[in-house]
Amino acid sequence: MTDENRWSKWFNRKNPFFDEDFFGINETFKQMEKAIAKEFEELSKRTPTDLQREQTLPDGTKTQSYGPFVYGYSVTVGPDGKPQVKEFGNFKAGTKLGKPHMDLKEKREPLTDVMDADKNIRVIVELPGVEKDDIKLSGTDDKLTISVDTTKNKYYKEVDMPSKIDVKKAKSNYKNGVLDITVPKKKPEKTKSEPINIE
């Protein structure tokens, strides 16, 4: 059964709660269902090919499946006492031209935690289902980049550092799906005061 036939059958079913159109509620539900179906139809068209699969069921029929779709967030309290919300995953909801919009990415953004200490910055990244050799880790003096690209798992994250860091002295290890990175902060450079001519 095609997706179009499935949605058509769904919308033409009888509402079990109301035999008659009670205050126009059946029509309202149908409009809502059509709007949701349209959004899912658009989402399936935008889904990256790596997240689409066709399965053959025991009775021989074929069905399309999508995913995995991952969305999550963590809430921590920042040094200023205000909550900080960090999202992760490959699926993000938002708005586009004033309407709800779902954004899908092929690579998942992993859950990441950044801890700013006196001399070091520690970054914890959750990368389940990954081998150490699959992880690509690089950095500049203000950013770390973590990337994994395998047939089963795809992750990508750029982590902005709260201070300048010395990437060459970074240390990292990976165990049980958790990447632990410790990077020393760069010592602030002392600048010499230079005279400026006044014209």
Describe this structure in words.
It is a single chain. The chain is α+β, with helices and mostly antiparallel strands and 199 residues long. It has helices at residues 3-11, 25-46; strands at residues 52-56, 62-66, 71-77, 83-96, 99-109, 112-116, 120-126, 135-139, 143-149, 154-160, 171-175, 178-184. The strands form four sheets. Strands 6-7-12-11 form a four-stranded antiparallel β-sheet, with no helix packed on it. It has a three-stranded antiparallel β-sheet with strand order 3-4-5. A three-stranded antiparallel β-sheet has the order 8-9-10, with no helix packed on it.
Supply the key terms.
single chain, 199 residues, alpha+beta, Immunoglobulin-like, 2 domains, 4-stranded antiparallel beta sheet, 3-stranded antiparallel beta sheet, 16% helix, extended
What is the N-to-C succession of helices and strands?
HHEEEEEEEEEEEE
User: Taking Cα atoms only, what radius of gyration do you get, to the nearest Å?
Assistant: 25 Å
Measured between the Cα atoms of the first and last residue, the distance is 82 Å
What's the helical proportion of residues? 10-25%
Q: Which spans have pLDDT < 50 for at least 5 consecutive residues?
A: none
